[in-house]
Amino acid sequence: MLVVLDANALTADPRLTGSVWELLAARVSAGYDTVVVPAVAFIEVVANQRREAAVVRQVLDKHGPRLRKLGADDAASAFRGSLDRLAAGYETWLQERLATLGFVVDAMPDVDHETLVKWATQRRRPFNDNGGGYRDALVWSAVVARLARTHADAAFLVSGDKTFTADGGELHPDLATDLPQGGSVMVVPTAAKLAEVLFASLRGTTGPDVDPRLSAYVTGLDAASLVDWVADRLDDALARFDLSPEALALPRWSEGAAVEDTYVLELDRRPELAGGFSGSALVPFDARIEIGLSFELDALDADAAGLASSDHGGRDRVWVTLHKPVDVRLLVKFDGQHHLPTTLDVLSVQALNDDPGHDEWVPPDHCHAQRRRA
After folding, report:
1. Residues 272-289: tens digit of each pLDDT
2. How far apart are CA 257 and CA 250, in angstroms?
3. Whole-model pTM above 0.85?
């Protein structure tokens, strides 16, 4: 399978430390996939990192007088030097990191610029309604060229740019006409979503380089034995996900909630080896997790929710902690030599609505309230 990574797929994790990259590397090593980064995407990622470094440098320069008052001139100067070296060396570092993973950086596609001008003036995808989209057009041309050159019949394009898709998320009809006969492209918005799709298509399969003893261990593993291990690492693994009330389908009066605690209810599916390499393996789990959210309610909202008496004088607020159940897709890496889990990553978080058909929402019995004076 051909996998093409757009710039935003890499910019989301510019150091490529997530377990999803190890999964893709394992599939490349096993001969399942070819992972390609178009040259235009590579250039954009490098430029994005340098801009990020410039922003941080501007912040340091802005607070120069304060740093001098603190006697932190030398520390700030050393940090600036490290920042500049990281920014200057990122291009080389990224080339080496991609090569280590087995990913390929493609050359610029051989594009007919007259065609691109016509696409832009006709507002044909991947150009947008304002005629912008030159870089997206080069990415798309790279996808089409790869399919034609390798005679592949299908590809994943990992991109959060909506110019590639129709309203339903499928490939836009304008672009479907560019594909070789019988070819297809599925657009997925993130690398984590790609991992979910690949897991779904490869349940129970193993690559040729997987240690058979590890395969037997992982496929026979009792998920319950992992609960404590996962629970200890869950908060850190969830840190990059949006756990705001809106994302968890809570009502508007709970805006401003803070995550108080998380704990595992169950790992409710038997793990299946979905790709791996000699010495270790990456294994997906479906988990049910509760997230404790704490937030304050106005007195009227509290009364409407049945959480406080009417004797509040207009100034009381109610502090509420709600345990919200969510479905989480976990990815665990196992060490092949010691048969132990080593790293945990979260691929997706999906809220379980209490009753999405109701406009009004009443907290469940295990929602605890405590009076506070505003």
Report:
1. 565 555 567 777 788 888
2. 10
3. no
